[in-house]
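Each field is set out as follows.
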Amino acid sequence: MNVSADVDVVTQETFDAEVLGADRPVLVKFTADWCGPCRQLKPVLAALATEEGDRLKVVEVDVDNNPEITVRYGVLATPTLMVFQAGEPVKSLVGARPKRRLRQDLEDVLG
C-alpha cells in the first residue's frame, strides 16, 4: 500500500509488526487528510524515505482511522513525527518542516 516513494501507510492491525518490530529506526508521521501541513510534509518524507531507506523506514498513520495508536502515543497535533527504535519511541517532533531542518532534527537517529 504505497502512498508515494517508500512511505507506507500503517494501520492499527499492522503497526506493531511494521513499526515496533522493524530492524531499523522508523519515522512515523501521524497525519490526517484534512491537515494542510501534513500534505506539505508528504514530499519531504517521500524524499527522505528514498534517500535514507537503508537506515530509516518512513511510514504514516492516519489519526482519524487509527485512534487507538494515536491515543497510545499521546499524539495531540498533526503532523506529529515520532521515531521508534527497538520498539520504543525515542524522539517526537510536532509540525511540518523543510527537509534540511528535518535532517538536522534526525541527525542523532541517522548517525
